Amino acid sequence: GIPGTNLFLPEGTITRAQTAQVLYNMAGGDDMFDFGGAQYFPTKFSDVSALAWYSKPIYWASEAGVVTGIGDTGTFEPDTAVTREQLATMLYRYVASQGKDVSGQADLSAYTDGASVSAWAADAVEWAVAEGYMGVGTDQLRPQENISRAEMAAMSVRVQPDGAYLPL
């Protein structure tokens, strides 16, 4: 939900920092990872303060290979909304980091906007479509559109339907 409220805001966007937190939680979060009580998590990203609330999940996601940042800029853009293809890529890397099969590939030409998927995200989006994590019941992928919080929740549950942690 939204910190300090009892709201979820399903149609709202989700930031890259919040997405890192969701993925960290999916991996077991503080129940699975012992950072020895550390409160300071320096990352390789110049725009992520080591003391920010999101530094721990971004540190974990970077170390696990789930996130790599924005191009070659050395930044993460934690407050920027996540696009659909970015989420597919993060989920793809998350599943791969768990040693799970990510070889599925779908033909994106079946979608009216399949050709607009960025080259860096193509494998991940093809996998997400093949696995039924996105593109179900529609002829559009909307890869560069921001993903809603509800869509994030739905895709996360599709990836990990039993809620069981996938230990690294």
Would you give an account of this structure?
The chain is mainly α. Helix content is 35%, strand content 0%. The chain has helices at residues 16-26, 29-32, 55-63, 84-97, 122-130, 149-159. The longest helix has 14 residues, at 84-97. It is globular, with a radius of gyration of 16 Å. The model has no long low-confidence stretch (mean pLDDT 91).
Mean pLDDT: 91
Contiguous low-pLDDT stretches (5 residues minimum) are none
Oligomer: single chain
Structural class: mainly alpha
Note the main sheet: none
| N-end to C-end Cα span | 26 Å
- How many beta-strand elements? 0
The percentage of residues in β strands lies in under 5%
Write the H/E string, N to C. Answer: HHHHHH
Q: Considering DSSP H and I runs of 4 or more, what fraction of the residues is helical?
A: 25-40%
Continuous helix count? 6
Shape: globular
**Overall radius of gyration:** 16 Å
What distinguishing features does this structure have?
168 residues; mainly alpha; 0% strand
Secondary structure elements and their pairing?
Layout: H1 16-26, H2 29-32, H3 55-63, H4 84-97, H5 122-130, H6 149-159
Helix pairs in contact: 1-3, 4-5
Structure, briefly:
By secondary structure, this protein is mostly helical. The protein is built from six helices and no strands.
